[in-house]
Amino acid sequence: xxxxxxxxxxxxxxxxxxxxxxxxxxxxxxxxxxxxxxxxxxxxxxxxxxxxxxxxxxxxxxxxxxxxxxxxxxxxxxxxxxxxxxxxxxxxxxxxxxxxxxxxxxxxxxxxxxxxxxxxxxxxxxxxxxxxxxxxxxxxxxxxxxxxxxxxxxxxxxxxxxxxxxxxxxxxxxxxxxxxxxxxxxxxxxxxxxxxxxxxxxxxxxxxxxxxxxxxxxxxxxxxxxxxxxxxxxxxxxxxxxxxxxxxxxxxxxxxxxxxxxxxxxxxxxxxxxxxxxxxxxxxxxxxxxxxxxxxxxxxxxxxxxxxxxxxxxxxxxxxxxxxxxxxxxxxxxxxxxxxxxxxxxxxxxxxxxxxxxxxxxxxxxxxxxxxxxxxxxxxxxxxxxxxxxxxxxxxxxxxxxxxxxxxxxxxxxxxxxxxxxxxxxxxxxxxxxxxxxxxxxxxxxxxxxxxxxx
Amino acid sequence: xxxxxxxxxxxxxxxxxxxxxxxxxxxxxxxxxxxxxxxxxxxxxxxxxxxxxxxxxxxxxxxxxxxxxxxxxxxxxxxxxxxxxxxxxxxxxxxxxxxxxxxxxxxxxxxxxxxxxxxxxxxxxxxxxxxxxxxxxxxxxxxxxxxxxxxxxxxxxxxxxxxxxxxxxxxxxxxxxxxxxxx
Lengths: 455, 183
Prior knowledge:
The complex is a heterodimer. Chain A is mainly α.
């Protein structure tokens, strides 16, 4: 048994009723100034994105930076970035659950919420990217007058199934996890709020018989979500790996994308948790120990991602393929070298600071590094897509892709949407899984009573 | 024997005591025990003699059905309904069908698990749901002993008194039973 399982990250002084009170307190209080400022900024960012999208819908995708050579630009970068962010939530809620990692209980709810909001942002981009957005439903196989079906040999269609299954599963997993907590909220409020939470908690009463079914269903979701989360980013990587383009056509892509997704997801988790625990005064429940464990995951996945980068370069050299070699030389020393080295420093160099315990436990430094990771992982996708495309097989086609104002505005808008949803979530729902964290509270004698730890 | 609709309930905030109560009650010969918990405590199923859930089996069935359905859908659409040659591959290019087949299975299993949970625990949107004590979803555990006549009721009360627990209450309404939720 690992040390992680033996040491509780929580103090033995905390009682179940304290947890309820502490987690639900922000839902009763008025929003703080910091929250209002953050929400205002998110609304403005979203507004900018909404204007940009409206302009695009009325004028067409010609307003974007994409051209004949670089057909996949910032929108596809954003899509893969957001799908990747979503992966940490499922990893924390499903995979760490199956490995009986009790520290997950403090952070799984917010990470799952992050997943859903990130997938919502991700889903927008392919829909915006297709030229005639009003025909987006053609992506779904449905009986139609043209007697046509979608092409199941295309990885782009696999993506439609993967991302929509992932979104559905994440929402269900999150909601089922919320039910006992919604009942807790219901039983401590009155009036219209009680009616709303009573409806949302689906009449949950916490009887032994319903807990038996609930526990089975929850474990079932975890078992199903685990291969699903690994499959989703693998399938996203097939969008590229199945093509013949140098820089994309590599078998390393599925594990490389999955590791990158976990890495970026944990980066965003740290960004959000640091803000959430500070602004909502939850330092005793989301402890430094929790953040330190996340930072260890970041360090491990940073190394995996770094290894993948080096492996790609090695294989390009070892393959003796002229085009492969050119591709990686172009990435490191070509027109977009600035993007390549930004990625390298943000993803492989800065996270190495987490080898030092004092840095893993320093909230300010980890917050700064997490921002670097978010930036670095965005640029990883930018490098893969844009640099592989911009210098194609015919030098006459070579092109320097520059995103336009509308590319950036929509990207900023997606961040606005993400933070609007997350900030609202922090206000109206329990940000920590109350019932789950109670089950890992040590009693005064240091014994655990919770189910998930002793299995 | 008529189904019990009345209960004697004993309350405690100590999870260890709560498990002990279940064990003791079973050894005293009480049948059809139930309990309420604000959060699941390790070993409650054994302590209260609760049967396992059938949800796993339903999900497994749905997983295989989804896989078969997903593959069948693609094979039929690509080879029977509208056969079209893509990139010189066979109509039923099965390796290309694996991702969608897999996702269909997972989607079916997830939705089935959700519906099974809703059915098994009788979850319904109910604007006026209530528990006997509000703390039952916070930190209060309870043992629920059903009775059908006064003799059983006194036996249950005597048992709970002997257990030295915080509170004992008698209820003749099925408030503790999720099936009793009224619309």
